[in-house]
From TrEMBL:
Signal sequence range: none
EC primary class: oxidoreductase
SUPFAM superfamilies named among the record's database cross-references: Bacterial luciferase-like (SSF51679)
Keyword Repeat (UniProt): no
Xref: InterPro entries: Diverse_substr_monoxygenases, Luciferase-like_dom, Luciferase-like_sf, NTA_MOA
Keywords on record: Flavoprotein, FMN, Monooxygenase, Oxidoreductase
Homology family: Belongs to the NtaA/SnaA/DszA monooxygenase family.
EC number: 1.14.-.-
Top-level lineage group: Bacteria
Single GO molecular function: monooxygenase activity
Metal-binding found in the keyword field: no
Positions of the Luciferase-like domain: 36-387
Official protein name in the record: NtaA/DmoA family FMN-dependent monooxygenase
Length: 444
């Protein structure tokens, strides 16, 4: 809905994500308890609901990244298991969607489909599943020998069959509440029996897939089965329009319509009363994200060497990277470390930067920086141009980093007629404008 007199325009969707682990987020105050304590998550959910967001997404970190065998300082403490935390949040919220990250490599279809359907019932139709597929053997060691699948394409194939099997389980109950036996026999899974959770309020929880917008395989997986594609950082409006057009073009091959998928890039922001103040706040955030130890950790990822003897406030190493070096298990490898190091050296020499300053300069950037009015205008223009359906915000400071956006930017979006002034429905599918899944009796 829009306010009286507001001009009609395409309205955006908004969501917020809490990362699983890493230096993107700076937790305010003492770390003990805040990262795992329920009050932090309750505050975030309440803020997102006050801001009329579509959903709150909890990321999952199944193993904390290590730095030469030690847990990196900003990754300590970890996060609660997402579905458990969201089940608790269902009791203290009314409308906000609740999205849980769950890895298809380390779960089984019956077990996860059951938990997600239960969350959908407990929340009155607000559950979502952020599907991820891990090929990381380092993480797999936490589960069982051979749990990880080093071949990325094989992980995608397993994930696709996993989602299909989960949908068969959800469809094994008729809309009228009659259970029917299910049987799925595929390459990765062979399961049969009777599902013990009735069809949930949304039919199926909303399915979210995330990925690099330029990755062909990730685009295809989103087109085949996702309700929301959480794209990487947005580029130009032209690039965003091309991405949306490409993904929606692929939908027809799976019997799907364009309105059945929402494209929502992940974004960061920094606000200020003036543009200059916003730039200062953005710079301060980047400084907080990169501690001296974190700077050396980032440098070692590029150089592939032990650089613990270097001074973070000193110059970059004069030695070249070792492309075969591996000092950060659980992290994606650097594609071309020699080229990356050359770019970093060029910037460091041109600006006279230390190691830490170089890492801050080369790795930290907010998507939207400015006053609340200018950030609202930038976001509105991007969506109006057809470059996205909305955004998933990654607040830097938690648990209160979403407050300013909800209180200062959302009202301006509403004044523009670019964002809802109230929830029109009760379920997440209604918030997103997604149709209910058609019950397919042939699956059961």
């Amino acid at each position: 809905m829009t306010r009286p007199g507001a001009r009609q325009r395409k309205q955006m969707h908004l969501a917020a994500q809490v990362p699983g682990a890493g230096s993107t987020t700076v937790w305010a105050g003492p770390p003990s308890g805040r990262r795992t304590g329920f009050p932090s998550f309750r505050h975030l959910a309440a803020t997102a609901e006050r801001g009329l967001f579509d959903f709150l997404l909890l990321a999952e970190g199944l193993r904390l990244p290590e730095h030469k065998g030690r847990i990196h300082d900003l990754d300590a403490v970890g996060r609660p298991e997402p579905i458990t935390a969201l089940s608790a949040l269902a009791a203290v919220t009314e409308r906000i969607g609740l999205a849980a990250t769950a890895d298809t490599t380390f779960h089984e279809p019956y077990e996860l489909a059951r938990r997600l359907a239960s969350l959908d019932h407990l929340s009155g139709g607000r559950a979502a599943w952020h599907v991820v597929a891990s090929s990381d053997a380092f993480t797999g060691e936490n589960f069982r020998p051979g749990a990880a699948r080093p071949d990325r394409s094989e992980c995608f194939a397993r994930a696709a069959e996993f989602v299909a099997a989960a949908r068969e389980l959800w469809d094994s109950w008729t809309p009228g509440g009659v259970p029917r036996p299910f049987a799925h026999h595929g390459r990765h899974f062979s399961v049969a029996g009777t599902f013990d959770v009735a069809r949930s309020p949304q039919g199926h929880p909303v399915v979210i897939r995330a990925g690099d917008a330029g990755d062909e395989e990730e685009r295809e997986s989103a087109a085949s089965a996702a309700d929301v594609f959480l794209a990487g950082r947005p580029g130009t409006p032209e690039a965003g329009r091309a991405l949306c057009a490409d993904i929606r073009r692929r939908l027809a091959a799976y019997g799907r319509r364009p309105e059945e998928l929402k494209v929502m890039p992940g974004v960061t922001f920094a606000l200020g009363d003036t543009d200059a103040e916003a730039q200062e706040n953005a710079a301060e955030i980047r400084k907080q994200q990169v501690s001296p130890q974190g700077a050396l950790f980032a440098l070692e990822r590029v150089w592939g060497r032990d650089l613990s003897g270097y001074d973070p406030d000193g110059p970059l190493p004069g030695i070249d990277p070792d492309p075969a070096g591996q000092v950060a298990p659980g992290r994606a490898p650097i594609a071309d470390p020699l080229a990356v190091a050359a770019r970093w050296r060029a910037v460091a020499e041109a600006k006279g930067l230390s190691i830490r300053q170089t890492v801050i300069e080369m790795t930290g950037r907010q998507t939207f920086i400015g006053t609340p009015a200018s950030v609202a205008a930038q976001m509105d223009e991007y969506v109006t141009a057809g470059a996205a359906d909305g955004f998933v915000l990654l607040p830097h400071h938690l648990p209160g980093g979403l407050d300013d956006f909800a209180d200062r930017v959302v009202p301006l979006l509403q004044e523009r007629g670019a964002f809802r002034t109230e929830y029109a429905g009760a379920t997440l599918r209604e918030h997103l404008g997604l149709p209910l899944p058609v019950w397919k009796s042939g699956r059961s």
